[in-house]
Amino acid sequence: MFAETLKLSIRTIMRNALRSMLTVLGVVIGVAAVIVMVTLGEGTTAKVTSDVAKLGSNILMVRPGQAGFGPASASADVKAFTVKDVDAIESQVAGVVTAAPTASRSLTAIYGSLNHAMPVTGTDNRYLAARDWTVASGRDFSDGELAAGASVCILGETVRQALFGDGDPVGAVIRLKQIACRVIGVLDKKGASGFGNDPDDVILVPLKMLQRRIAGNQDVAAIFVAVGDGYDTAEVQADIESLLRERRGIGVGEKDNFTILDMAQITSMLTSVSGVLTGLLSAVAGVSLLVGGIGIMNIMLVSVTERTREIGIRLAIGAQAHQVLTQFLVEAVVLSLFGGVIGVAAGLGLAAIAGRWLNVPFVINPAIVIVAFVFSALVGVAFGYFPARRAAHLDPIEALRHE
Amino acid sequence: MPLAAAPPPLIAFRSVGKVYGSGDAAVAALKGIDLAIARGEFVAIMGPSGSGKSTAMNILGCLDTPSAGAYEFMGVDVGDLNRDRRALLRRHFIGFVFQGYNLLPRTSALENVEMPLIYRGVPAGDRRRLAYDALAKVGLADRAGHDPNQLSGGQQQRVAIARAIVARPQVILADEPTGNLDTATSREIMDLLTALNQADGNTIVMVTHEPDMAAFARRTIHFLDGRIAGDGPSAEAA
User: Is residue A79 within 8 Å of residue A302, measured between CB atoms?
Assistant: First the structure.
């Protein structure tokens, strides 16, 4: 009996192919929006997670100012850190393996006739240790170079390629701004993106060199802290916070004028950006499904009226109310499931295209595909019930008389 | 020593009344009808418009219930049954033939005939075979795959008759079955109904305007103003 009902409803829908297509458009858009949203969201999360893993999971980042994720030198009016803060963190907080001071500027490097723009980070060897970066060729900074703020630099792989092609840059002299700078080493290629940035697209110089000759101040814009294995990151974070509050003279009850981020927070900050997009698409999906449902209800009411005579015949022949109800309900559900199938296909297609464009990996979540189908079926039941009930409660005598 | 009770008639009206509307607007369509129809009869019901014959047919077909008196079908008081129970009675025991054929459009003759069997839960294979047999009985075996709009009026009515008999009902109710047909075709349909009655023993109750058609039945009941004005053997056809 149910198979008959199913067959009948598919046939009825196919008979009015164009009308059915237009009817389910709302469901298609709603389901597609959900699929795009979730697929892109999952892709973003996967990407951020892998990016964060690249950064190192036991890293804390200390920045002046409150919250917000952006360039480390974002707010000029916020009191920067000093090298002494870094040394204090490293020597006084238990669990800190290493703390590296950094300050950055975006500059153009010139070598011969070639030039390349990238961030220049002033730091010391502890930064390499904290981020687990290694030197592929050449060497890291010597103590003398660090103390003197010598004009030496270590190139990221991307910079090396841009300025030297296949050549070995160690020993060559490049220019940063107007400053001649000797290349002493090249970093190992880390590959792929870090937060959409290329981590290989960087030049490291001694912190003092950046402070004196490029930035013209003594500021440390951000501190990278590597926490030792077996230490609780949250505890270390709290210790650093109280140390820095003391050093920066923040009274009881006053707010921190710096921020300590662990990777979980960095991850959530990065994913919160896509939260706005998710909210927007959810709204689109919700409204579309509602409109789609109303469309289905409308067309089912039309269908019940058109087929009043058929309903009368069926009732006269011995169909019971629930059988007529089932027939029309199944038809509504098949209709909206049909919209769901198209919506899932369209959503996955759109997500694949948009993902390539936004540089987000394409991750299919089977659960959401199933949820989308269930949801579209529910739309069919919810909005098909009223018309189906109307059909089931027709008076057979009246229905048979209907023209 | 038990008294051999006579088997109850297939159809029994006991002082059946039917009132539509209420209060001042109330219209009495049937005013106390007593009627019994036994198995194997071929009965014609005649009467002018508004005489109550359609109302009587609706009650006979368990599509409606009396407002007074009792209607017993196969010994069951239909007035006590709800909508779904009456649907079951129709499904298992009553076949309908309408003036306007009432076939499902864009659905083949075979599938139209199969429909009552679907509601009876007959498996697909048996259904097809039984429907085909019924079509063969009305002489349309070669039109099984045709849609109603590819068939003539007479052929459509034959399909409708096949649909009415396919589930082997206790009674066939025909509401002006020849009302839309020309004389020659009407005679073919009446011959078919007569054969179904005489050869197969089907009980047939038929409403008609035309004395020529009523003459095919063996008994004619005349309705007038909601009452039975005459009940007896049909007049010979002219």
Answer: no
Q: How confident is the model at residue A73 (pLDDT cuts 50, 70, 90)?
A: very low
Q: Is the pTM of this model over 0.90?
A: no
Determine, for residues A313 and B119 on separate chains, whether the beta-carbon distance falls below 8 Å: no
Angstroms from B52 CA to nearest CA on chain A: 15
ipTM for the predicted complex: 0.93
φ, ψ for residue B94 (rounded to 5)?
-125, 135
Check residue A188 and report its DSSP letter.
P
Q: Closest chain B residue to A322 measured between Cα atoms?
A: B84
Asked if A233 contacts A56 with a C-beta cutoff of 8 angstroms, the reply is no
Whether residue B100 is contained in a domain is answered as yes
Question: Is B36:B203 a contact under the CB 8 Å cutoff?
Answer: no
Sheet holding B11-20, edge to edge: B27-37, B11-20, B68-73, B76-77
Q: Quick one: pLDDT at residue A273?
A: 58
**Residue boundaries of the structural domains of chain A:** 2-50+269-401, 98-229
A310, A316, A321 member nearest B104 (Cβ): A310
Counted across chains A and B, CB pairs separated by less than 8 A come out at 53
Do B63 and B37 meet the contact criterion of CB atoms below 8 Å apart? no
The reply to whether B176 falls in a domain is yes
In a domain? residue B6: no
Token duo for residue B209: 């305007």
Residue in B63, B92, B106 closest to A316 by CB: B63
Partner-chain residue, chosen from B87, B98, B116, that has the shortest CB–CB distance to A315: B87
Give the domain CATH number at B18.
Answer: 3.40.50.300
Task: Inspect the interface and report whether the beta carbons of A397 and B116 lie closer than 8 Å.
Answer: no
Expressed as residue numbers, the domain containing B16 is 11-233
Judge whether B103 lies within some domain: yes
Per the structure, how many domains does chain B have? 1
Based on its alpha-carbon atoms, the radius of gyration of chain A, rounded to whole angstroms, reads: 32
Residues of A in CB contact (< 8 Å) with B are 1, 4, 15, 309-310, 312-323, 396-397, 400
Are A313 and B88 a contacting pair at CB < 8 A? no
